Amino acid sequence: MQDARLPVERGRVALGRYLDHGVRQVPALLDAIANWQPQILMRETTAFAAWLAGELTDLPVAVFDFAPTPGKLLAATAGDLSGSARAAVGLAPDPKLVSLNRWLHFLSAPVGWFSPRVMGPTTHLFQPFPEPANSHTAPEWLRGADDGRPFIYVTLGTFYNTTPGLFEMIFDVLRDEPVHALATVGRDIDPASFGRMPGHIRIERFVPQAAVLAHTDVVICHSGYGSLMGPLRRGIPVVTMPLGAADDTPNAARVAALGAGVVLNEGERSAGSLREALNVVLTESRYRQAAARVAASIAGQPPLREMVGLVERLGMERMPVRGRAPG
Fold first, then answer.
1. Domains of the chain in sequence order
2. Of 9, 108, 220, 277, whose CB is crowded by the most CB atoms within 10 A?
């Protein structure tokens, strides 16, 4: 059953869960800080325990942010939740959430992916994570699919891949299309559970994404950050479907705004709309051209290894590390 709540409401509920989890983690993190005596904490977007513990211990915190939200919007939609989390650990209110990214804030995406409103004074833009070097070897059967027909890669991530009926709808569409298709369904789903497939559709639990993308013309995916950055950094257009994660809807909106694919939102997903979207992305060059521009933008950003120097600087100086305007 699809979640009928509005995206903002879903995001608020998810944020509340992450904040509650962070509050519960704070005592253990404070013990670790006392034992290890670090000079700096590093966290990802939803690891709020480090935000709270950093405030309690006056430790600088560097944030790798895969789903940034403009501070004013976050304060307006969930300021009460963050205020409750701060109160639960004995911190004073921070109604404008100025402490959230005040030390060092990393974004990893092409220019134009994130709204300028999320670019604070300590924001630095970098390339997305590269795949591991050992993940580029393609299976023999995958190399054999290069016969001129388009290759479609299907992935719904590792959490929303159990959305009822969605894989089945995708396979029904691909069954009659003149393409090769690979779907990775995750370790908890038996590929055989989908029944017998025609020879041009292959279902696997896992194949290294980098190996697949080297052969791919279009990706069908949910709108998770990792699922999108893989194809877009290679200039591969997408058909993407936001499924419920807090960042899915804004990520899908960015795909549409950049012209790098077609978005099928809730209420728009059907076999007919998916077939139409797939054919449009395959046949109209504007989507691949837009995806190529996104890839060029990613390539123009500093590599992630340059983050190390900024983290070291933060640890030594204990002062906010100001960013540069993206370009």
1. 7-127+302-317 (3.40.50.2000), 133-298 (3.40.50.2000)
2. 220
